[in-house]
Design goal:
This protein is of the alpha+beta class. It has 13 helices and 36 strands. Bound molecules: alpha-D-galactopyranose.
Length: 718
């Protein structure tokens, strides 16, 4: 009784500590978010947009909407948080207690706002991390309590943002396997638009956690106010965009609450995933360059380091290979001039040999008859050829036809009393179980211990969570989706701690699992199993809004042989270049061309990998017959333009393409590269010098009326 009295007195004192409105400013160089602790003790979002120039103006701002809206109180629309207390009361009223702001590293400030319920001992901390130069704000929430029994968390958003504008347009990136990141835009009117997934492991198969929100009117590359937002969570997410009766928009981002009620014990903290966003008042181009700069500097694994070009054997052999074939392909890798040979699926399993996708997952020993001398022989053969060796794994999965399944059914997510059903003939291991985490860690650790020469992993994840029941979690089944992802992070943390320099590719039947939390552990991701260069123009374009070229693996294959090897390679060079092809599928000229392209790619690293991306012509524009991207090095001394004609219409009017991001005052030599042997350049102005001013105001005739035609043009300051 006495404790209760002291506690409520304490809460009262905190809740009444605010007398006049207090403004909390979360600023980057260009973006401003202003929160206001009002005299009623509650926290409001008063402003979000281009950073305000004068502090003295803050007092004029409208109060705005409550920053982190709760269930059960006066609001009539979707809340950010809903908790059920020990006494079954489902309401929460959050009052401002205090806030702190500190510099956490050069150029990065963190503000933490503490809110508390005035009737229940529940604390919510809103975190805002502002990256000044990159103009990114990262937000997440921490929830804790002192109730006797666990608090039931029903919804627990990472972030809530409010907008009060005349109109809103949402661009989403939904698709499917081999049609990833397909962009479409819809106006938002009254009601909700929800983007979410409930697939668990291959969580983003139909839609990745990223969006573009245009304010007032539709945005373009260089015009309009936009928010780009993405969630760092390698599992079920949900974005809710709700326009209310006043035409205000709220955006709620976080873990999908679907079947995810979480019991939080007293004294423990539930930390939501990070939501990252940026704002630009000059279109999407700047906003995505913000993301690229931030990712390379702060988020992507080894973001500022080089990447290895590679030859993968997947499309060259599928499951049908042996040691000799692989060694022969290593010879192809050397001829191409790439840095690494990557061995894909099909190298493991003995009792249930992995001869197809029907069996063997979980049994990570080399198949004897295919690889009689083991992985070591392959590592040695690669070393002899002065290239690196990488290997494919899918360690979270199990085939029902495997020794692992026979030994450890208790490790498999499955419904004990029902027939099993399969996605790609496989099931998902229960990563909420620490023993399974050890096993999954052990797949990488075991291989690295036995074969320390392995230089790279391709980590695949082909199945969503099916047959949803965790033998480990017992009566806490609604924790599975969350604890699965947390288990995955524990494993990845251990790998990163033990092998900090080991590059890994994140793959999930293409890009069924990409987000910026996962990319802390992975140097790159596989953008799609679809390597048709025409489709890739669209898929890579979609991902380029959030992910820099060095993170997006793009391989030259034999998909769509109507397109020349040059066209296919030119498309792949806009990402992290690799090959998945046999030299026997190429002519001598093709090989000579590819060798030159690999050299050019390495030479142009400062522009493609580290530079700024300008999307000059969208593949989605008009008749979808052209596309062009430009990469400019940070010092503006080097640029490279990739221009594509897909299926131009007969007699189509073709205009020059204006370049961007150059120094108007500099002189640049324009030179077409990546030409086929004996092919001269037909580019007007080739090998001439132009001012940056001219190139940006008038441009170059980069596009043509030819079908499936491509050009790569190097622009060098004189
Ligand atoms: C997935 C990947 C492919 C390949 C196969 C192997 O589909 O996306 O790149 O690795 O698995 O089975």
């Amino acid at each position: 009784m006495r404790i209760k009295a002291i506690l409520s007195l304490c809460l009262f004192t905190l809740a009444t500590a605010v007398s006049a409105d207090e403004f909390i400013k979360i600023n980057t160089n260009q973006v401003g978010l202003v929160l206001r602790a009002a005299d009623n003790g509650r926290l409001y979002q008063s402003y979000l947009g281009k950073r305000l120039a004068n502090e003295s103006d803050l007092q004029h701002l409208p109060k705005g909407n409550e920053a982190y809206l709760t269930h059960g109180m006066e609001d009539y629309f979707e809340p950010a948080i809903e908790v059920h207390h020990n006494d079954a009361n489902p309401s929460l009223l959050l009052k401002y207690v205090s806030h702190t702001s500190k510099n956490v590293q050069p150029g990065v400030d963190e503000t933490v706002i503490t809110l508390q319920d005035d009737k229940y001992p529940v604390t919510v901390k809103l975190h805002y991390v502002a990256y000044a130069k990159e103009n990114i704000i990262k937000t997440f929430t921490e929830i804790s309590h002192q109730e006797k029994k666990p608090l039931k968390l029903e919804r627990y958003a990472s972030a809530m943002l409010h907008f009060s504008r005349p109109a809103y347009y949402l661009t989403e990136f939904s698709g499917d396997w081999i049609y990833e990141a397909t962009m479409s835009t819809t106006p938002l009117n009254f009601g909700k638009k929800v983007l979410d997934t409930k697939l668990g492991a291959r969580a983003n198969m139909f839609t990745p956690p990223m969006f573009i929100l245009s304010l007032d009117k539709e945005s373009s590359e260089n015009e309009g106010e936009v928010i780009l937002g993405t969630l760092g969570w390698t599992g079920n997410f949900r974005f809710t965009f709700e326009v209310d009766n006043k035409k205000d928009l709220r955006v709620i981002a976080g873990i999908n609450p679907y079947f995810s009620e979480y019991s939080l014990p007293k004294g423990e903290t539930f930390r939501t995933p990070d939501f990252y966003f940026t704002y630009s008042d000059c279109g999407r181009g700047q906003a995505s360059r913000n993301f690229h700069d931030w990712a390379r500097k702060y988020q992507l694994k080894d973001g500022q380091e080089d990447r290895m070009t590679l030859l993968n054997n997947w499309e060259a052999t599928y499951f049908d290979f042996n040691e000799d074939k692989l060694v022969e392909l290593m010879g192809d890798a050397v001829k191409l001039g790439v840095d690494m040979f990557l061995l894909d699926d099909g190298w493991f399993g003995n009792k249930y040999e992995r001869h197809s996708d029907t069996q063997g997952l979980g049994d990570w020993d080399e198949t004897q008859h295919k690889l009689p001398h083991g992985i070591q022989k392959l590592v040695d053969e690669a070393a002899k050829r002065n290239i690196k060796f990488g290997i494919w794994i899918e360690p979270e999965m199990v085939s029902p036809k495997s020794e692992l399944y026979e030994k450890h059914k208790d490790w498999v997510i499955h419904l004990p009393n029902r027939d099993e059903y399969y996605f790609r003939n496989q099931m998902v291991l229960d990563l909420s179980n620490p023993e399974v985490q050890d096993f999954v860690f052990g797949v990488v650790d075991g291989l690295m211990t036995k074969y320390p020469g392995i230089a790279y992993f391709k980590w695949d994840c082909n199945s969503p969570i099916t047959n949803i029941y965790s033998p480990y979690l017992k009566d806490k089944q609604t924790h599975l989706y969350v604890d699965y992802v947390r288990g995955l992070y524990k494993v990845l943390d251990r790998i990163k701690a033990k092998y900090p320099k080991l590059p890994m590719m994140l793959c999930s039947g293409g890009s069924g699992r990409i987000d910026y939390e996962a990319l802390q552990y992975f140097t790159e991701f596989w953008a799609s199993d679809n390597t048709d260069p025409i489709q890739r123009l669209f898929i890579q374009y979609g991902y380029s809004f959030f992910y820099p070229a060095k993170s997006m693996s793009a391989h030259v294959t034999t998909w769509n042989k109507n397109a020349s090897i040059k066209f296919r390679t030119d498309v792949a060079m806009m990402g992290k270049l690799g090959f998945d092809i046999k030299l026997s599928d190429m002519s001598g000229d093709d090989l000579t061309y590819c060798q030159g392209a690999v050299k050019n790619y390495k030479r142009l690293r400062p522009a493609i990998m580290e530079g700024d991306l300008y999307r000059l012509v969208s593949p989605y524009d008009g008749t979808r017959s052209h596309a062009a991207n430009q990469f400019v090095s940070k010092d503006k001394n080097k640029a490279v333009v990739f221009a594509f004609d897909v299926y131009p219409g007969y007699g189509e009017k073709i205009l020059p393409v204006r370049l961007e991001g150059l120094d108007a005052g500099k002189q640049y030599r324009v030179k077409e590269i990546n030409l086929m042997p004996n092919q001269g350049s037909s580019l007007e102005g080739n090998d001439r010098v132009f001012s940056g001013d001219y190139l940006m105001k008038v441009g170059l005739n980069l596009l043509t009326g030819n079908k499936l035609y491509s050009r790569v043009v190097e622009i060098t300051a004189e």
